[in-house]
Amino acid sequence: MSKPVLSVRNIQKSFGGIKAVRGVSFEVQRGEILGLIGPNGSGKSTLFNCILGQLPADTGEVEVNGKPVSNIRPSDLNKLGVGRTFQQLSVFPKMTVLDNVILAGQEHRGTMLSRLFGPGDAGLTAEAEKMIEFFRLTPYRDTPAGSLSYGQQKLVDAAMAFMAGPDLVLLDEPAGGVNLTMLANLKDRLVAYNAEHGTTFVVIEHNMEFVMSLCTRIIVLAEGAVIAEGSPAEIRANQTVIDAYLGG
Ligand code: ADP
Ligand code: MG
Fold it and tell me: In this predicted model, what pLDDT tens digit does every residue of 183-233 receive, in sequence order?
């Protein structure tokens, strides 16, 4: 088997007395769409933040394409081809959709300040327009991002994360607060992007329908530990998962 794109070993993270993540390990192969599910407070976002260097883990190692990246700076992780979207929207509401996506591209290239105040970059603009078209946002190209629907803004968020041409993208609740039509649209675009570019996704999600239909494999967290792992069908039928999470 080829090298995993992402390898996470024994990550632990406490906040004072709260053990948010208790020794989580997993690997993700190229092209997989891995779902990370679990009840509120089960440590999903903390795990993401540890993987992405936004929080120092207490223990554990993370490798991207076989390179150790533990305690790496988020901007350096970007250079290794790792992108993310946040649980909260990160668009600039007063800027147009196009400018948001261009800005994300500039940020990834580390040229933000010089470009913001300098001449436009035709190549980058064309790339941003292509990305906007891919996410079917072309009619909103010149609209301030803040006046789009919440679901459309989530699409802008994804377009921004993909401007780095990442190998691996971690998405924190991309479907949260998104209506049914936009959900289908978002899923369709993520699957198409994965198929076209071979990009690997790790997706935190609450919406079971969304996660079960999007993901090729699912890991279930409860109280900071992995309680199950398998295909969507296996997870649906797993008694431990049903008891801990899906039941209710
Ligand atoms: P999830 O994303 O699965 O909902 P989180 O990773 O946000 O879970 O939270 C896991 C646990 O860690 C929760 O008990 C939460 O209250 C706690 N926690 C998360 N972030 C912090 C923080 N910055 N400071 C203190 N406690 C935190
Ligand atoms: Mg969370």
Answer: 899 999 999 999 999 999 999 988 888 999 999 999 999 999 999 999 999
In short, whether 17's Cβ falls inside 6 Å of ligand 1 is no
Residue 18 near ligand 1, beta carbon < 6 Å: yes
If you take atom 27 of ligand 1, which residue's CA is the nearest one? 15
Residues 85 and 158 sit within 8 Å (Cβ to Cβ): yes
CB distance 64 to 168 below 8 Å: yes
Length of the chain in terms of residues written: 248
Strand, coil or helix: 64: strand
Asked whether 40 lines ligand 1 (CB < 6 A), one says: yes
**Cα-flanking dihedrals φ and ψ of residue 175, to 5°?**
-95, -5
- Domains of the chain (ranges plus CATH)? 6-246 (3.40.50.300)
Helices (H) then strands (E): counts for the chain:
10, 10
